[in-house]
Amino acid sequence: MTHAARSRGHSWSYTVTGRVRLVAGATAVVAVILLAASLWSDWTRFLANSLVFFVFTLTLGLGSLFLVTLEYTVNATWSVPFRRIAENLAVLIPISLILALPVLVGVGTLYEWTHTGSADDPILAGKSGYLNLPFFLVRFVLFFAVWLVGYRFLVEGSRKQDQVGNKSFSERASRFSPVFMILLVVTITFAAFDWVMSLVPHWYSSIFGIYLFVSCMVAGVSLTTLAATHLKMKGLLPSEVGPDHFYNLGALMFAFNTAWAYVAFAQFLLIWYANLPQETIWYAMRSASGWGVVSWLLVVVHFIVPFVALLNRSAKTSLKRLRWVAAWILGAHALDMYWLIAPSIRAEETVFSWQELWLPFAALAVGLLAWQWTARRAPLLPVNDPKLDAAFRFHL
Are 81 and 392 a contacting pair, CB within 8 Å? Predict the structure, then answer.
């Protein structure tokens, strides 16, 4: 019997350890306490942080689902052993629907275009056909409907394939994914306009939707890499998943993060070169009251450090290096989401305070609890995928 056959016959089930339960529970308790204190202290700041948390979590889920969709779209083989990890992490999409509730409750506080006096502003009046609350809510429902349909078809279908062994699902998924990829690009673009860009309704950028889409790509591949390297180091992935597989993950992380830097710089360069007040206002908010330091910090932590850390080939095959770089990029991505949202709501206030402390605890708690719940529902490998054996034999 070959190594691939033995790996295919293994259950590859995931068991939650007592330590993980303890960390998840303790982190959740701390997050709830800090969240309640923040809610009591400053309602507007709490809403701004809730929007950050919602968008951050959603980008992780959408980025993970993007990786699943990309594999089926290009008919990739090497990534099959990692696909179930991305499928499990995509559960953050339905979880994000729950996290959106504070944002929906506070939409009148967060978004200027919902205020009664906005009709007297000629710019807001001109955008009122799009920026109005009923249409905003319709689009919100439409976005999540598209994402949840894709999640159910791709993720639930893959798990069902494990149970019944119906390999025709892979063919259906390969036909479905190119169409769904287009829908992902369109819906994420318009969600970026609705939920983030319209916080400053007098400002616009035609690149902004792509900026958030590329951010989803970075978030999804980094989170998948973090989980995959951890599972491999714990012996929970088969021996056939080797350095060449992880090299490709590292190369994707390097490429997507560099693409993020390119799009971010392109947006800044075009706005700086045109020097139009209705465009520069957004960057002006991120240049004063301490936000300028965060802007420059993002250049270092989100681009320069990961770029240098992953530049060598050997770095992309080192599990320890990949794990810490993936964790680093996720932290930089969280800072980026904070930088995109918080200054638009409270540009003149302090950048950070104790009221933001609940965010990292809540992110860790939601991530651990979501993984515990979803990873136990199916094997860590898509054991009945027709390309699994070929994936085990993959070499560069």
Answer: yes
Q: For 365-393, what is each residue's pLDDT tens digit?
A: 999 999 988 988 889 999 899 999 999 99
For the range 167-174, what are the long-range contacts, defined as Cβ-Cβ under 8 Å and sequence gap of 24 or more?
167/384, 167/385, 167/386, 170/72, 170/385, 170/386, 170/387, 173/72, 174/72, 174/73, 174/75
List pLDDT tens digits, range 10-43. Answer: 657 776 677 888 998 999 999 999 999 999 999 9
Find all residues with CB under 8 Å of 265, minimum gap 6, and list them.
Answer: none
Residue with tokens 């075009």, as numbered in its chain: 270
Helix, strand, coil share (%) of the chain residues, nearest 5: 80, 0, 20
Only one residue has tokens 């810490």, namely 324
Taking residues 172-188, report their average pLDDT.
96
Which pLDDT score is estimated for 2? 47
How wide is the angle at C-alpha 81 spanned by C-alphas 246 and 147, nearest 5°?
105
Q: Whole-angstrom Cα distance, residue 124 to residue 267?
A: 23
C-alpha–C-alpha distance, residues 133 and 151, integer Å: 27
Six-digit token pair at 388? 């699994």
